[in-house]
Write a structure and sequence with these properties.
Rossmann fold; single chain; 21% strand; 3 domains; Uridine Diphospho-n-acetylenolpyruvylglucosamine Reductase, domain 3; 14 helices; Phenylalanyl-tRNA Synthetase, Chain B, domain 3; alpha+beta
Length: 484
């Protein structure tokens, strides 16, 4: 390939369309803060018309913008000799423009099989993992992609088809952060207001010969079907449908931005964050308008999963449908998340929310001493009444004289009754748990301390009134349950 000279775009009065395209790109970059002076920008170049246009345009803008450029190309090993030729083309183009370039190969099919995802999704994840690695190696703060106005329209339609809700109407943003596990990178899109026909014309005008990806002819990927079938169909109803969708996207972006601000304002009063889980205060959350509830739920899920790519409108609506359901109701979500309804709060996180480990069978406690139970360590000590302190929780103080025979532990059984402290009359254990608003999923796991058939303590909740410490108590049995 003969050496190419980048176009002189900034500071000229060229009347041709290419200079206008360059000026628009500069304006867009500055308007959205996509590049700053002294920074290094990684360019993702596939070799197609859009990314080739991006490379050539930015080569002419780098002095004006004050940025360093580095080109990256990934061979997905999906098209044999054709994709290998793409890599050669990109390397040659970058070299002719005097830019450093990184070209690598990755096995996308193996990645797909390992992670059990679609080939299209695997290619995207592998590509961005590669870009994030290269950006880290060269010290680039962001990666620029060749997404165009047409890609924006197709993305909006794809989101609508998949049912991603109002946020999906925003489509591609000028700048956003891609995340996968511990890998992340800022993605900028300088060509987002440039059409695909314009990039092709730019390449023709500058004697560039971009590569044609024959996989774009296949109708298997959803995006290709939208591009080749749905968009032309919609244009037959409204030739300006692309403009209409972009206006809708702009309105949605403004409304999402407003909701983001409201969620940020409300978050501290509604949400408590724990390791791997988010707790929503039901009393504060329920009176919120449904639009804010949905947005807050999405923000919470995004915070736990790192993205919303697998979260569809139906998932949010499944949660909305159980907000008024009884405690114990749960909704399973992608990524292993569970939304659980409790009496005074909602829980969102992975795994089992119950603070009580499973406890099967009956166990004798060592008094005094320690006893190891499945998921618990129980410490028993005999103390003087004057040493009793209000500890609560998983610590209980019993009148030792009320303990007849061996001290045992098991979970509650149907028909169990006890005298809840302060109540003065017997009550079924199950009914007490309901009245105490203990989630249904927890009830069969809560340890019950008993002796000679008499319940003495529902651990973590209530002592039996007959076992309480009084002024006549001579010795006190202190029990402490600790999770292990």
């Amino acid at each position: 390939m003969p050496p190419l000279s980048p176009p002189t775009i900034i500071g000229t009065d060229m009347a041709n369309k290419n200079a206008t395209l360059g000026q628009r790109v500069v304006k867009f970059i500055r308007q959205h803060g996509l590049a700053s002076g002294g920074s290094r920008l990684l360019l993702a170049v596939s070799g197609g018309a859009d990314s080739t246009c991006l490379l050539h345009v930015l080569a002419g803008l780098k002095a004006e913008l004050g940025v360093e450029l580095h080109v990256a190309h990934l061979d997905h090993q999906l098209r044999g000799a054709e994709s290998a030729a793409d890599a050669v083309y990109v390397a040659g183009l970058a070299s002719s423009l005097g830019m450093p370039v990184t070209v690598e190969q990755r096995d996308v099919r193996a990645y797909r099989d390992k992670h059990r995802i679609s080939l299209e999704e695997a290619a995207r994840e592998v590509r961005y993992l590669f870009l994030s690695e290269v950006a880290g190696n060269i010290g680039a703060g962001s990666v620029a992609t060749g997404h165009t106005r047409d890609d924006q329209v197709e993305t909006i339609l794809m989101h609508l088809v998949r049912g991603t809700g109002t946020r999906g109407l925003v489509g591609l943003r000028p700048c956003n952060r891609w995340r996968l596990g511990d890998n992340q990178i800022a993605v900028v899109r300088p060509l987002l207001e440039v059409g695909r026909r314009e990039t092709a014309e730019y390449c023709r005008q500058h004697c560039l010969e971009p590569r044609a990806d024959t996989s774009n002819l296949s109708l298997s990927p959803l995006r290709n079907r939208i591009r080749k079938q749905l968009v032309p169909l919609l244009e037959s109803y409204n030739p300006q449908v692309a403009d209409a969708l972009l206006r809708l996207s702009a309105v949605a972006a403004d409304e999402i931005a407003f909701l983001d601000e409201e969620v940020a304002r409300l978050w501290p009063g509604v949400v408590q964050q724990r390791e791997g889980a988010i707790i929503l205060d039901k009393k504060v959350f329920r009176p919120l308008p449904p639009a804010l509830q949905r947005h807050l739920l999405r923000a919470a899920i995004d915070g736990l999963l790192g993205s919303l790519k697998d979260i569809e409108t139906r998932h949010i609506e499944e949660i909305m449908a159980v907000l008024d359901k009884p405690a114990g109701k749960q909704v399973s979500l992608p990524g292993g998340l569970v939304f659980a309804v409790e009496y005074e709060r909602y829980l969102l996180g992975r795994g089992d929310f119950c603070p009580f480990p499973p406890l099967e069978g009956e166990f004798t406690l060592n008094v005094p001493g320690e006893t190891q139970l499945p998921g618990w360590r129980v410490s028993a000590a005999i103390i003087e009444p004057g040493r009793v302190a209000a500890e609560g929780g998983f610590v209980g103080h019993l009148d030792l004289e009320r303990v007849s025979g061996e001290l045992m532990v098991r979970c509650g059984k149907q028909g169990d009754r006890f005298y809840p402290l302060g109540l003065g009359h017997p009550k079924k254990l199950g009914q007490f748990m309901i009245d105490a608003k203990i989630p249904r999923a927890w009830r069969r796991r809560i340890p019950v301390v008993f002796s000679a058939g008499q319940i003495l303590w529902l651990v973590g909740y209530r002592l039996d009134d007959r076992a309480k410490v009084t002024g006549k108590t001579g010795r006190v049995l202190r029990l402490e349950f600790t999770r292990v």
